[in-house]
Amino acid sequence: MQDWNCAQDIAGIPLTAANYTHAVEILKTLFGWPKLVAREHISALWKAPACREMTMQGIQILVDELMKHLRCLKALDKEPYTGHFPVSEALMPMLREKFSPALQSAWDLKVGSDDDFKKFLQFAQRHAQRSPRPWKTASESLRRESNTEPSRRNRLTSNGITAAVLRRLLRQGGRRSIWNINN
Questions:
Q1: Across the chain, what does the average pLDDT equal?
Q2: Any idea what the Cα angle at residue 131 is, between residues 48 and 45, rounded to 5°?
Q3: What count of Cα atoms within 13 Å lies in the side-chain half-sphere of residue 168?
Q4: Which of 42, 59, 61, 72 is the most exposed place for a label (fewest CB within 10 A)?
């Protein structure tokens, strides 16, 4: 089996939405195994990290990541939104959990029990754009409050360590060794 570099194989194709399907077709032709590739994208959806910041940017990063894998599935002729039991519907309960409880509750109040993942992602984007401040879970609030400012003792300790390192450098080689640290 020959070792190929995927990036080199599609390097000449401009990165646009119009060329996305073409690039995937080239990679499918070169590397084959579309079922394995589809499984990897489903696995990536499953393993996608939860939204770290319930801000417009944080939500958009998660939505973009999920949409990337859903578009790849579509390009592999694995339509995630159609069929008797679509992938998006099967993954909806788990993927919802990657968003804040506040966003999930807002979805439940607005839509009810609809398991349309495409609509949920659009809802999350609209909700993020209207939200002036970040949503925080209780654990995030406690963590941020406890880490606001280092105590005076910790500041003195870190300053003491810095001073000790500088003293040692001066003793070892004088001023010249301090300026040559990065060289």
A1: 70
A2: 10
A3: 7
A4: 61
Q: pLDDT tens digits, residue range 82-130?
A: 777 677 777 788 888 888 888 888 888 887 767 778 888 888 888 888 7
User: How high is the pLDDT of residue 161?
Assistant: 52
CA distance 118 to 140: 28
Query: Which amino acid, 115?
Result: D
Q: State whether the Cα torsion 142-147-148-150 is positive or negative.
A: positive
Query: How far, in Å, CA of 114 to CA of 24, rounded?
Result: 31
Distances (CA, A) of 58 to 27, 49, 54, 110: 30, 11, 6, 22
pLDDT tens per residue, range 27-81: 767 666 777 788 888 888 888 888 877 788 888 888 999 989 888 888 888 887 7
**Radius of gyration in angstroms for the set of CA atoms belonging to the chain, rounded to a whole number:** 25
pTM score: 0.49
d(CA 115, CA 88): 8
What stretches of the chain show up as alpha helix (H) in DSSP? 6-9, 17-31, 34-47, 56-75, 87-96, 101-111, 117-130, 138-146, 152-179
